[in-house]
Amino acid sequence: MGNCNSIVSTTIEEPKDGHENVVFFQDKESLRDTGKPRLCSLYSRRGKKGPNQDAAILYQGYGTDDMVFYGVFDGHGRNGHIVSKLVRNRLPLLVLAQKNALNGHNYEDRKAGFGDELVSNKRLHQWKDACINAFKVMDKELKLHENLDSFFSGSTAVTIIQQGEDLIIANLGDSRAILGTISDKGLMAVQLTTDQKPSLPMEAERIRASNGRIFALKDEPHVQRVWLPDINLPGLAMARSFGDCQLKDYGVIAIPEISCHRITANDQFLVLATDGVWDVLSNKQVAAIVWLAENEEEAAQSVVNAAVAAWATRFPNSKVDDCTVLCCFLQERRQHPVIMKRRAEQYVF
């Protein structure tokens, strides 16, 4: 069963209505000043492997009126459902605290960008350092948590901070973010993050240099996993994560990859989702589903429904994974009426 939730508060807390996996946090002052929330939707659906270990948050009015924090988290291991929600509730506040602490620091105002676009790098460097510091603190807090065993449990995190027209993307693990943008050929899906799998040469080199082992199981030859040096545990399917304390001495790290993007008039929407979606749907397919959704509020649920159907078709003998999606539209879809009328296969490539 899928669930969604919205709250207005001054702190991020667990919802009391049972819809604990996704949270829309709207700062009261931001709502008053902006007049209306952004065109966003969140949806999470439990798979068939146990409790829903995914979590997501949309935090509007994050620090200032023009800022938004988007985050999707995918837990794993026995206590993964606890870890993902702890990270969701704590990480946004840690990043903001670290950013505020860096405001007085002297950064060179160099130039850097995403692709061919250049943005002021002074603010980017502050956010980059804030994210890296906050992720480290978050991982340490999990390790020191008195009532949580995170030795073989952990969570991914894919987050985007939007400040005006700038996006700061921080990724840890194998959840993913994409951007739907318009080109001369139609709608294009741009992947904003890299799935940090043990099969990636850079990740594998670090893990093996730390005496971690990487190999796939016989019944899953396509899935490379991380193992302890002398015992076949735990078999982690990603190279970076929160938690997973037993693997932190063997090359698994909690340092995110940071990138940035300056929003243009052609950029239409963002999608953040857990691997339950990306394992069965391509970036192009997800972009098409979002663009063709009946309305913005149903976009996330439409992607989740399509992913669940794809699991049944592609892996009929496998247990469906948890699927969580956060969609945010950056422009009004009516600005491109011609493309809206085209069939998905005609404009997504």
Automatic annotation (TrEMBL):
<keyword id="KW-0479">Metal-binding</keyword>
<keyword id="KW-0464">Manganese</keyword>
<protein>
    <recommendedName>
        <fullName>protein-serine/threonine phosphatase</fullName>
        <ecNumber>3.1.3.16</ecNumber>
    </recommendedName>
</protein>
<keyword id="KW-0378">Hydrolase</keyword>
<dbReference type="GO" id="GO:0004722">
    <property type="term" value="F:protein serine/threonine phosphatase activity"/>
</dbReference>
<dbReference type="GO" id="GO:0046872">
    <property type="term" value="F:metal ion binding"/>
</dbReference>
<dbReference type="InterPro" id="IPR001932">
    <property type="entry name" value="PPM-type_phosphatase-like_dom"/>
</dbReference>
<feature type="domain" description="PPM-type phosphatase">
    <location>
        <begin position="39"/>
        <end position="330"/>
    </location>
</feature>
<comment type="similarity">
    <text>Belongs to the PP2C family.</text>
</comment>
<dbReference type="InterPro" id="IPR000222">
    <property type="entry name" value="PP2C_BS"/>
</dbReference>
<dbReference type="InterPro" id="IPR015655">
    <property type="entry name" value="PP2C"/>
</dbReference>
<keyword id="KW-0460">Magnesium</keyword>
<dbReference type="InterPro" id="IPR036457">
    <property type="entry name" value="PPM-type-like_dom_sf"/>
</dbReference>
<dbReference type="Pfam" id="PF00481">
    <property type="entry name" value="PP2C"/>
</dbReference>
<keyword id="KW-0904">Protein phosphatase</keyword>
